[in-house]
Task: structure prediction
Amino acid sequence: MHRVDVVGNSLGVRRELIEGIKSLLGWRREFTKRRPRLAGRLLGVAEKLTGSKPPVSSGCTTAAQTFGQQTTADPLKLDG
Result:
């Protein structure tokens, strides 16, 4: 009888786990739909904080454009 309870509980746990996974998948889809809107809102906040649109060069990446930054590497100076 104890074994029957364990099997019954295992099936219940499995069912709850499956429902939870389905819920997480739905949440992930919803988040990916909202991601472009969120990036646009962050850019708007950056514009408000700086007072204007940040300058962007043609060689800048999309991620850097979103956050209003241009990343460059300074060459090393060797004192020979």
Notes: Residues 2-51 form one domain. Residues 2-50 form the longest helix (49 residues).
